[in-house]
Amino acid sequence: MNCENCGAPLTPIKGRDYCCCTYCASFHFPTPLAGSADGVKPLGASAELACPICRIHLAIGSIEGRRVQYCERCRGVFTSSDNFASIIGHKRSRWKGPSSDPEPINREELDRTIPCPMCVAQMDVHPYYGPGGVVIDSCGKCRAVWLDHGEIAAIESAPGRR
């Protein structure tokens, strides 16, 4: 499959359900946002904050009734730590599907640096200390979390106590 923007080959992202163009850094998602595994529901409004990956304005949406901001290009999600805990608690308690085998943490993800969309300080990059084997970005100053597309779904469907 080739990139719709530049025609270069797309590279599947390991452990995720999307591809990225290594030439122009565009993302390709096989499912529309409304049907994505993370469960983002667009609310049709733009936010003031910029995506730390794509540098475009985030959009406002909700997951499990909690307000989030998300990027329409890379589908990353930015929310408060409290909302994140609530979203994960609700999603894991209601998960009815089969548990997915968690992928080992991609150590390369620990090397990236991204700015907090709120205060622009460098976010802390670390393994999520719950199930799912994902690396998340958090800002202690703002008490906020950045999640790449697919990370909420990986945590939701991870084996373990629900």
Protein model, in words:
This protein is α+β, with helices and mostly antiparallel strands and 162 residues long. It folds into two domains: 1-30, no CATH class; 33-156, no CATH class. Helix content is 12%, strand content 29%. The protein is built from two helices and ten strands; from the N terminus they run βββββββαβββα. The longest helix is centred in the middle third of the chain and has 14 residues, at 81-94. The relative contact order is 0.17.
What is this structure's SSE topology?
Layout: E1 10-12, E2 19-21, E3 27-28, E4 41-50, E5 57-63, E6 66-70, E7 77-80, H1 81-94, E8 124-127, E9 135-139, E10 144-147, H2 151-156
Antiparallel strand pairs: 1-2, 2-3, 4-5, 5-6, 6-7, 7-10, 8-9, 9-10
Strand content is: 25-35%
Distance between the terminal alpha carbons, to the nearest Å?
A: 37 Å
Domain unit count: 2
The neighbouring-strand order within the major sheet is: 4-5-6-7-10-9-8
Share of helical residues: 10-25%
SSE order in H/E notation?
Answer: EEEEEEEHEEEH
Biggest sheet layout = 7 strands, antiparallel
Please provide the count of β strands. 10
- What is the molecular shape? globular
Mean pLDDT: 88
Rg over alpha carbons: 15 Å
